[in-house]
Design brief:
globular; 411 residues; Aspartate Aminotransferase, domain 1; Aspartate Aminotransferase, domain 2; binds pyridoxal-5'-phosphate; seven-stranded mixed β-sheet; alpha/beta; four-stranded antiparallel β-sheet
Length: 411
């Protein structure tokens, strides 16, 4: 995983023109979309790929003997190969799910069934609710315990703190690669290496990493990696879990139904091969094909070029926010990707967000589904901006001047 600079400078105006939603006006103002951490807008290439499937071969996969079904299966499994390859894995390691939340729930239910009372699951203070609640439920079912590694006052997660928290009973380290609320990039590869050297299973929540940097499952060295398609320019309702094949072979299926079985009788069943053993029922075929197109789109721009450009945007945005009186940035991590949270002294984040919206600027205000990390900083809500590859310095300028005006007039 790297945010190292490259020399390629992407053509931002060409990228913007690929994404139709960015041409919209909101409340009579040109849209400035600063909410990529919630979801990224879809490129035309992705929309076209979904339309092509729905228009030309809208059939089910794997089961049909007819031409349509063959074409749908080829496109669906072709998308699996290219998405897996993009994320440094083989196709048989990639289970399609609805997204990060479902992927983590799959692991918490299937792998989690091997937990015993007193086993420990280690998460960090930075986690999204999707990487907290499924483990709380798993602990309730099995008697395992959930333990949390804190961050420092700047919201950095230190490898030393994680290592100090390991005990004889640690069975799983489940941590995020990038915090969605603060933007902290964690030392996730080092954490995975430290855990693995002690025989501890590892899960990486890569939801906020895959859109912003080169992420390679093999290089990360984890056992499970969860992510969402809609945060990497694909459609909603599709994402995945990449896992070590031996673990996928060993753990039981999570959901039962069509396609995940080899044989069924009223007495017993046998399971399909991985990854299909974990894909019960008709999958999101159009969404998968759309996600395959999103990966082509990202590959064409280049993840190195994206990381490089977005780092510049983030530095620019931090500088602008720091220059505004009464604005305080929440967390100053040594390495940041994707997001900046801030508060305005004397103003509620929801009001700031709503007023920015009147200026055509889309931000997120609230707890960002990461209540514990906000509470860690004595807050229950922040404004979050999440710039991405399609944003421009001009848009950050519009954001800065709108925020200044809002604070002057209403603050
Ligand atoms: N993990 C992180 C770090 C996230 O930012 C999000 C969504 O914001 C999720 C998990 C949950 O993703 P989804 O709602 O796509 O399942």
């Amino acid at each position: 995983m790297t945010t190292q600079p490259t020399t390629n400078c992407p053509d931002i105006f060409a990228i913007r023109s690929d994404i139709p939603a960015l041409a919209r006006e909101v409340h009579g103002k040109p849209l400035v979309y600063l909410d990529a951490a919630a979801t990224t807008p879809r490129p035309q290439h992705v929309i076209d790929a979904i339309n092509h499937y729905e228009t030309h071969f809208p059939a089910n996969v794997h089961r049909g003997v007819h031409e349509f079904s063959g074409e749908a299966t080829a496109a669906y499994e072709g998308a699996r190969r290219s998405i897996a390859n993009f994320l440094g894995a083989d196709a048989h390691q990639l289970v399609f799910t609805r997204g990060t939340t479902e992927s983590i729930n799959l692991v918490a239910n299937a792998w989690g069934s091997t937990l015993s009372p007193g086993d420990e699951i280690l998460i960090s203070a930075l986690e999204h609710h999707a990487n907290i609640v499924p483990w709380q439920l798993a602990c309730e079912r099995t008697g395992a315990e959930l333990r949390v590694v804190d961050v420092d006052g700047d919201a950095n997660l230190h490898i030393e703190s994680v290592e100090e928290a390991f005990t004889e009973r640690t069975r799983l380290v489940a941590m995020t690669a990038v915090s969605n609320a603060i933007g902290t990039v964690t030392p996730i590869a080092a954490i995975c290496a430290a855990a693995r050297s002690r025989g501890i299973t590892t899960l990486v929540d890569a939801a906020q990493a895959v859109p912003h940097m080169h992420v390679d499952f093999g290089e990360l060295g984890c056992d499970f990696m969860a992510w969402s398609g809609h945060k990497m320019y694909g459609p909603t309702g599709i994402g995945g879990l990449i896992a070590q094949p031996a673990i996928l072979e060993a753990i039981p299926p999570w959901q039962g139904g069509g396609d995940m079985i080899r044989t069924v009788s009223f007495e017993s069943c046998t399971w399909n091969d991985i990854p299909w053993k974990f894909e019960a029922g008709t999958p999101n075929i159009g969404g998968t094909i759309g996600l395959g197109a999103a990966v082509e789109w990202l590959t064409q721009i280049g993840m190195g070029a994206i990381a490089d450009y977005e780092q510049k945007l983030l530095h620019d945005a931090v500088k602008r926010l720091r220059s505004i009186d009464r604005v305080e940035i929440v967390g100053t991590p040594a390495s940041r990707a994707g997001a900046i949270s801030f508060v305005v002294d004397g103003m509620h984040p929801a009001d700031v967000g709503a007023m920015l919206d009147r200026h055509g600027i889309a931000v997120r205000a609230g707890h960002h589904c990461a209540q514990p990390i906000l509470e860690r900083f004595g807050l229950n809500s922040t404004v979050r901006i999440a710039p991405a590859i399609y944003n421009t310095a001009g848009e950050l300028n519009t954001f800065e001047s709108s925020l200044r005006r809002i604070i002057d007039v209403f603050g």
